[in-house]
Design brief:
Helices cover 40% and strands 16% of the residues. It is α/β, with parallel strands linked by helices. The strands form 3 sheets. Strands 4-10-9-8-7-5-6 form a 7-stranded mixed beta sheet, sandwiched between helices. The protein has a 4-stranded mixed beta sheet with strand order 1-2-3-14. Strands 11, 12, 13 and 15 form a 4-stranded antiparallel beta sheet that branches. Helix 3 packs antiparallel against helix 12 (309-324), helix 13 (327-348) packs parallel to helix 15 and helix 14 (377-390) crosses helix 15. The structure holds pyridoxal-5'-phosphate (PLP).
Length: 433
């Protein structure tokens, strides 16, 4: 019997844990360091998901460990109206590195919260309440964020916030909008989407929230020009634009912020997962003009962990390391190597319909048939199980697709990229035959 099968552990887990996201992985994690974690059997598992897409510097990075140790002993948590140096320094640094004039920063704990804050501020400042989001979005599970989330189940939880409107997510591989030359016609799709929005709207459009690359929706990368066109549609309607860079922010895509590729600066930008690199830290950024109006109107987003010093100190170190070690460039370079390796696998496995994404945020789309592009979720689950057996953690998106989203730490090295590719190769061979 493997140490991962410990009957007492699993009996207690079954008896006392809420099942918040389907089945738990069939192993017990004991420790993690660098780009691997170790299970109860002593097996080292390559972490191709960066934990929950967050551990961008790998696990237990020595400098992060040192900062966390220092601040837990120095200044951990305070009444939420009290400021400290790490908080003001982090807000200043985020304002400096972010695009445009997103100079006002709110520091909270989770991605859902940071989006909730942006949505609340957009409603307060515009005096309207309708929120447009993409049909394959994921912005969190709290009220407002969940109302704007369409790639998870919405069934059974009662009515979402009134005014939740949806745009077709730009899916370069499976869109129904194909022109006479067989090319994805995103302009017509966007036009059509806004035609429907305008018909549904009761005249209270407040904001549009969007991930620069829709990760949980299947690593959907909008074509170049799409975000600029979307921003224009928002401007025409006097709607505010929110970019959710929970997964794409801070280097993973080969830009410090993914929206830099698109040359679009939104009214709000949210950061979370990668900012704490595994610790709970999130930020909502906006312009001084917007923040001033919100403050005049008594903006309230008062949470227990707003402006906590310990996570802020960690966030400061995370950004310092990413800038100092040029990890954004590294993500671009190693992402190219990983993508080339996946494309080489596509040559050998008919079940790989599409390889897409940027930097170290890539998608591998498994299909039953390349002609029909019918997704193969069962095969993807078998491949994921084989990967875990062979020593690599992967993530398959929800929603009936067979799409892997591949997001290793951006501290990963060439040997570990090649190991990941080798494991994918062996897992595919086992699962297909
Ligand atoms: C793009 C995006 N935004 C927001 C969230 C929600 O973040 P959290 O789970 O920290 O609330 C997620 C989580 O997966 C995400 O992928």
């Amino acid at each position: 019997m493997s140490a991962n099968d410990d009957p007492q552990f699993w009996a207690k887990a079954r008896a006392h844990l809420v099942r918040y996201g389907g089945a738990f992985s069939p192993l017990i994690a004991e420790s993690a360091a660098g780009n691997f974690f170790t299970d109860a059997g002593g097996r080292k598992i390559l972490d191709f998901t960066s934990g929950q897409m967050s551990a961008i510097l790998g696990h237990s990075h020595p400098e992060i460990v040192a900062v966390a140790r220092h601040w837990i002993g120095e200044l951990d948590h305070l009444y939420s109206t009290i400021l400290s140096r790490p908080v003001v320094d982090l807000a200043t640094l985020i304002a400096k590195i972010s695009p445009g004039r997103l100079d006002r920063v709110l520091l909270v704990s989770t991605g859902g919260e940071s989006n909730e804050a942006a949505l609340r501020m957009a409603k307060l400042v515009t005096g309207r309440h309708e929120i447009v989001a993409m049909s394959r979005s994921w912005h969190g599970v709290t009220g407002g964020a969940a109302a704007a989330t369409y790639s998870s189940s919405r069934k059974g939880y009662g009515p979402p916030a009134p005014g939740a409107l949806v745009l077709p997510a730009p899916d370069t591989y499976r869109s129904r909008f194909i022109d006479a030359n067989g090319v994805y016609d995103w302009r017509s799709e966007l036009e059509f989407g806004f035609e429907l929005i305008d018909r549904q709207s009761s005249g209270a459009l407040a904001a549009c929230i969007v991930e620069p690359i829709l990760s949980s929706g299947g690593v959907l990368e909008p074509p170049e020009g799409y975000m600029a066109a979307l921003a224009e549609k928002c401007r025409e309607r006097d709607m505010q634009l929110i970019f959710d860079e929970a997964q794409t922010g801070l280097g993973r895509t080969g830009h410090l912020f993914a929206c830099e590729r698109d040359g679009v600066v939104p009214q709000y930008l949210t950061l979370s997962k990668t900012l704490g690199a595994g610790l709970p830290l999130a930020a909502m950024l906006t312009t001084p003009e917007i923040e001033d109006i919100a403050a005049e109107r008594g903006f309230l987003f008062y949470t227990t962990h707003a402006s906590d010093p310990l996570p802020a100190a960690v966030g400061l170190k995370v950004i310092e390391i990413i800038l100092r070690d040029r990890l954004t460039e590294r993500a671009a370079l190693l992402g190219d190597r990983l993508k080339a390796g996946l494309l080489a696998l596509q040559q050998r496995y008919d079940c790989i319909g599409d390889v897409r994404g940027r930097g170290l945020l890539l998608g591998l789309d498994l299909v039953k048939d390349r002609r029909t592009r019918a997704p193969d979720p069962d095969l993807a689950q078998r491949v994921a199980r084989e990967c875990l057996e062979l020593g690599m953690m992967t993530s398959v998106v929800r929603g009936g697709f067979g799409i892997f989203r591949i997001a290793p730490p951006i501290t990963i090295d060439v040997g570990e990229i090649d190991l990941g590719l080798e494991i994918f190769d062996r897992a595919l061979a086992r699962a297909v035959h």
